[in-house]
Amino acid sequence: MKKWLLVPIVSVVMAACSVNPVTGKSQLSIISPQQEVAIGEKNYAPSRQSQGGDYYLDPTLQTYISGVGEKLAAVSDRPALPYEFVVLNNRVPNAWALPGGKIAINTGLLTLLDDEAQLAAVLGHEIVHAAARHGATQMTSGTLASIGLLTVGAAVQGRSGEQLYGIASQMGAAAWMAKYGRDDELESDYYGMSYMARAGYEVQGAVELQQTFVQLSESRQADFFSNLFASHPPSVQRVEANKVRAADFAPGQRYRQRYQTAIAQLKKDAPAYAAEKLASQAIADKKPALAIQHLDTAVAVQPAEGQFWALRGTAWEMLDNSENAEQAYTTAISKNDKFFSPYLARGILYYKEGQRAAAVADLKRSNQLLPTATASYYLGELALQEQRYEQAQSYFQQAAQEGGELGIQSREKIQQLNLQLRPHTFLAFGQSASSKGALLINVMNTSPRGMRNIIIEVFGPTNLSGSGQAKIIELTNVLEPGEQVTISTGLAYFLEQQGVANYRIVARSAKLVN
Fold first, then answer.
1. Contact 117, 205 (CB under 8 A)
2. Average pLDDT for 206-219
3. What is the C-alpha to C-alpha distance for residues 208 and 278, in angstroms, rounded to an integer?
4. For the chain, which domains are there?
């Protein structure tokens, strides 16, 4: 490495060093504690929306989970963090923590646990991730990697901590929920058990939790649990480490009955969610009629679950029954009006049916709850139909950030809108000198539409007095797609060929031929 890079690299690393509040060891972080909290608060709601939304069928379960989480947070190494705990309406077994103490656990994981001690093991583990600033260190590592470690010196020179924070915060929730390193996981296990013991729980619950995860990872259902294993990879080594750690603590409380009472509604609704899983598979297999049969079973058990009705809407759409699909989406919204998905589905259905006002209302509401490329794309299409070109372009620019076919289509729409809004940017120019030394300009229409009233401005070289020549030229004739025309500017005579490059040509405006 060159010596001139060493000083800025070392200085930024030293400036980014902080103390892990849990272990007391030094760690690398360009994110301040205040910024960490702000990131978590900003991303908590959209992260929940994107993963099923909040579980609403039993508010007492949300209260119970929050109570257990707050009990553990109070004995953590960062009790002043603005902790929040939420249950997500998601059958995939998982739990996660955002920076600043924003924590979620899925219903799918709750049904795998046996007692409150095991729940405390999950929440304690996630609290350590937040308290030990694991998310902040992950964002730091990702930021340094994104700007290139070998060019950190050049990248950070002249940048404030706020600018580096901006780079880190733009990385998205994937940077914070990605697979934790082995040390982070062991650290969360180790200190999470301490929090359990301080709160009076039996730490053996943490050992059992890891044993369960290892068994699941070895089962035929491993793919179903892949999200959990990606962020919290189980291993026999972790089980053994937890056994050794558990020996350091006195026996604690299990609270099995209290936990079983708390998840009673989930267990009662288990047949409904099993039927929903079958319905989802039937839809994937393009068997919508079979999906509706399974959903009839699900709704009979739990008619208040909006996700069942939203899935019915999808099935009815596959059967080309728009009326029933609309009714199903509307019912889903009536069951839970705080989840983006049925608004998005109904908005797209309204768009296809030509109900523009209704489509706009639903798609905007969907985007308010969770901004998505899909909603932005259809809002762009609707704005385009009403010739609101600037607004349409803004929506397509949002959708263009998405990968895949939708992103490609959005970028094509932006190109079309650029032609509509700024047709003159599709003009190409060349310049040369005639045999008599006159400045000639070649104008070519590179767009797929004819243009007229083309106005261009030609700037000449600066003369000795500091003033320069400029001339406005208008082409009134239609310039067809791919056509080019050569015009004499009248700006120069006896011009040498090498002097042509001293003239600059700018397209000011043009109109498309209808």
1. yes
2. 87
3. 30
4. 3-261 (no CATH), 270-336 (1.25.40.10), 352-421 (1.25.40), 424-512 (2.60.40)
CB 308 within 8 A of CB 302: yes
Contact 479, 445 (CB under 8 A): yes
Rounded Cα gap, residues 177 and 138, in angstroms: 9
Q: Which residues contact 373 (CB under 8 A, 6 or more apart)?
A: 398, 399, 400, 401, 402, 406, 407, 410
pLDDT band at 236 (very low <50, low <70, confident <90, very high): confident
Identify any residues that bridge with 484 across adjacent strands, giving them in sequence order: 444
| Range scoring the smallest mean pLDDT among 373-387, 428-442, 451-465 | 451-465
Within 13 Å of residue 9, how many CA atoms lie on the same side as its CB?
13
Quote the pLDDT of residue 133.
77
Phi-psi region of 255 (alpha: psi -120 to 50; beta: other; left: phi over 0): left
Cβ within 8 Å of residue 3, ≥6 positions away: none
CA dihedral 40, 43, 47, 49 (to 10 degrees): 130
**Single pTM value for the model:** 0.82
404-416 as b/e: b if 16+ CB within 10 A: eebeebbeebbeb
Q: What is the pLDDT of residues 358-369, one digit of tens each?
A: 999 999 999 999
Reduced DSSP (H G I as helix, E B as strand, rest coil) percent helix, strand, coil of the chain, to 5: 55, 15, 30
Report pLDDT digits (tens) over 4-31: 444 444 444 444 567 777 776 766 666 7
Q: Is 429 helix (H, G, I), strand (E, B) or coil?
A: strand
